[in-house]
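Allow me, if you will, to draw on your knowledge of protein folds for a short while. I have a record of one protein: its chain in single-letter code and its fold written as discrete structure tokens. Kindly check, if you would, that the fold set down in the tokens agrees with what the sequence suggests. Thank you for your consideration; the sequence and its tokens are set out here:
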Amino acid sequence: LTGLMEQFVDLAKKGEHEKGGWANTAYGTSKTGLTVLTMIHARRLTKERPHDGILVNACCPGWVRTDMAGPKAPKSPEEGAVTPVFLALLPAGATDPHGRFVSDKEVQPW
């Protein structure tokens, strides 16, 4: 993953990332990298600390009205917080979702 992210940065600096097969979005590429890193960490936790009860997931709050997203975004900050809060408040002993990408409180295909 690190090598791929470094490849994107190097190509983007030269303006050649699209020729290299990358999307023309640093934001989207970084979000993809972070999601994959989350899945890698989840696999490691499962293997190295299987009885600790730690769940690791990536989540997307959706398009939320913020300074960055602007006033046209359909979700309020409160609505954007629903999925992260849902994941943070999973009951003790929950085993799923783990190593997944979650949006609108639902595991999304990846």
About this structure: The two ends are 16 Å apart (CA to CA). The first strand starts at residue 58 and ends at 60.
